[in-house]
Amino acid sequence: MTAVLAIRDLQITRGPRVIVEQASLSVARGELVALMGESGAGKTTMLRAVVGLEPFAAGDVDVDGVHLAANGLPRGRTLRALHTRVGIVFQFHHLFAHMDALHNVWLAPVHVLGQPRAAAEARARDLLALLGVDGVAHSMPHELSGGEAQRVAIARALAVDPPLLLLDEPTASLDAGRREALAATLRHLAAQGRGVLIATHDADFARACRSRIVRLALGRLV
Amino acid sequence: MLLAAADARAQPDPRPGSAGRPAAELRWGGDAEGGAPFVEADPNDPTRVVGFDVEVASVIARGLGRTPRFVQVAFTSLDAAVVRGDFDVGLSGLEDLPARQARLAVTIPYYEFREVLTVREADRGRFRTLDDLRGRRVATLGATLAYELLIKAQAELNVDPVIYEDDVHPYSDLALGRVDAVVLDQVLAERGARRNPGLVNQDAKLAVGHYVGILAPTNAGLRDRINAILRQAMRDGTLEAIFRRWGMWNEDQPRLYARMTGADTIAPVSIPERGAAALSRTEALALYLPALLRAAVITVMLSCLSMALAVAAGVLVASGRVYGAPPLRAVLTMWVEVTRGTPLLLQLFVLYFGLAAVVQLPAFAAAVVGLGLNYAAYESEIYRGALEAVPRGQLDAARTLGLTERQTFVLVRGPQAFRLALAPMTNDFVALLKDSSLVSVITVVELTKQTQIFAANIGSWVVPGAMCALLYLALSLPLARVARRIEKGWRRG
């Protein structure tokens, strides 16, 4: 299996505080990995570093051949390449509040990849259908339930077809039945050949995903 | 008549209201901004006023056995203030106009003046009368005889009147070339030409007018006693001495005094054959409504252009303060604080008159720039707050999707900030609509100024005030409706 994400000796600091220390981790294509740990263990920070939102002090991060350097955020060509290789679903989704669900999904393909609007919109509809939320395509984010918003956010992250998908605490706003459905969806996305990395503190969910489990405690992988 | 005058001199004020005061006062109103030779602060003691009107007031007070006390009132408010009872008699180079005769108790004239044309030295041979000024800009002071003269010339000769709120800037703007001539009375004209080298007064007499004192219409008794005192002062040379002291004595005055002391009466001068005050309410309305509507159009154009400038500049300043480097942020912050922290009126003066030596903006352009930039400071604060209110998480999401900083601004942050800003922006637009009345100080005649002129000419605020208020409401109410409709549309998604 080829690694779509390879993290070696990652160290993230904020001032004198060490958030993540000496963390190494890899995710292969078609693999589901659950990054587990208590709240505040540094899971979210690690995901943010992988998508270029958080600088790191030392170590290597490789996303499907795009190498991120320590100290400083990725820019220019590296940044553009990174965005086609990794998508992220935030814990609170962060859908664009002034656009309907469909527009949230086709925005990046049109404005970042330069796809024609009609084609991007058709693919966005397919993605919403795949995730079972095509019924709310024209709803505004504030009209969606937590579960619907999450699925729209997954569709948005998948719109540029990245080989790696990150999810931050995806079960925070879901009941048991919906957790099961989400696990099935993620298994399906992994089966299509994507690497999926889930930051969660929910062991049942990690098991339901049949994922490989990596534990992060006090910023160290154990 | 002589007896009456002697009585007035000898007896103290018999009014019951003033009986308790040891030395009754004569409260007389004037505007010290009018300056010499009328009324001005004494250069040696700014708490005192000096001028020929001050001395005329003293003569009257002495005649009444009272002590004169000066009450400062803005020139254009003198008529309304005397009716309110803010002072007993107004003396401030006030012209004998039909509107005053109709609404107030007016004294006999105590000085005769000519309306004269002032031009630049180079134009002395070219612009001799108003006939030579077809299509040209001619300045004057609002609500004066000269103003009526120009309004008539506008209709008959297509002269373009430019209305000032003071009598200093018409002459300085003439010297700068902003206007081609000034029409005002010879007292002001001589002062204007003295202060601005290169200006000359033409000899032609455009009209003749008189200075009078004004009293409340209920105060005709006091007016008659003042008339007696003035006649006595004409006979015994007291007035001549005053006007000689101020260099204003000329051959017109003895003729005027001869007629006054001969119990002759002089009709108030009105340039249109029938003065506005002689018209009925409906006729006055028909006469002024088109002018008010034209002024309302100026107000709308001015407000829309200023708001467009305020929004554009506000967006740039807000963007600079949110995205810019620290030195740029510091400069923009300072600009916002200075602009918000100083009066708009002052900014308009500086822009139009203060910078005239460097850049001569046309009045309307200066008004748009002044109002627009002043409001830009407020708009930029609204936009900055709105930009910062867009959740960070959405900006992170935009970045991870690969949107550039500019795309994030245009597609995500800007549109949401605009929605947050719309309600305060509508508020500001309504405020700007009303603040646009301040630009009359730089000669733009908009709705409020036109109303003021209307009110001064018919001598009442009731009808003009109501019409002006209705026009402002007609402009501002639809604005609020449109804004509400847009917001509703957004909520529906």
CATH class of the largest domain in chain B: Mainly Alpha
How do the helices and strands follow one another from N- to C-terminus of chain A?
EEEHEEHEHHHEHEHEE
**Rg of chain B:** 28 Å
Biggest sheet architecture of chain B: 6 strands, mixed
* Helix content estimate of chain A: 25-40%
% residues in beta strands of chain A: 25-35%
Class per helix and strand makeup of chain B: alpha/beta
Q: Largest interface by residue count?
A: A-B, 31 and 19 residues
Shape of chain B: elongated
Q: What would your notes on this structure say?
A:
The complex is a heterodimer of chains A (222) and B (493). Chain A has 222 residues and is an alpha/beta fold. Chain A has helices spanning 43-50, 76-83, 101-111, 117-130, 146-158, 176-191, 203-208; strands at residues 3-14, 17-28, 32-36, 58-63, 66-68, 86-89, 164-168, 195-200, 212-217, 220-221. Chain A is 34% helix and 27% strand. In chain A, strands 6-7-8-3-9-10 form a 6-stranded mixed β-sheet, sandwiched between helices. Chain A is globular. Chain B folds into 3 domains: 25-110 and 212-277, D-Maltodextrin-Binding Protein, domain 2 (3-Layer(aba) Sandwich), CATH 3.40.190; 112-209, D-Maltodextrin-Binding Protein, domain 2 (3-Layer(aba) Sandwich), CATH 3.40.190; 281-492, Orthogonal Bundle (MetI-like fold). Chain B has helices at 2-10, 52-64, 78-84, 98-103, 145-157, 169-176, 186-195, 220-235, 238-245, 252-261, 281-323, 326-341, 344-354, 363-389, 392-400, 405-435, 447-458, 462-492, and strands at 25-30, 40-42, 45-50, 67-72, 89-90, 105-106, 111-120, 137-141, 160-164, 181-185, 199-201, 207-211, 214-215. In chain B, the strands form 4 sheets. In chain B, strands 7, 8, 9, 10, 11 and 12 form a 6-stranded mixed β-sheet that branches. In chain B, strands 4-1-5 form a 3-stranded parallel β-sheet, sandwiched between helices. In chain B, helix 15 runs antiparallel to helix 16 (405-435). The radius of gyration of chain B is 28 Å and the shape is elongated. Classes of the chains: A alpha/beta (222), B alpha/beta (493). The interface between A and B is medium-sized, with 31 and 19 residues.
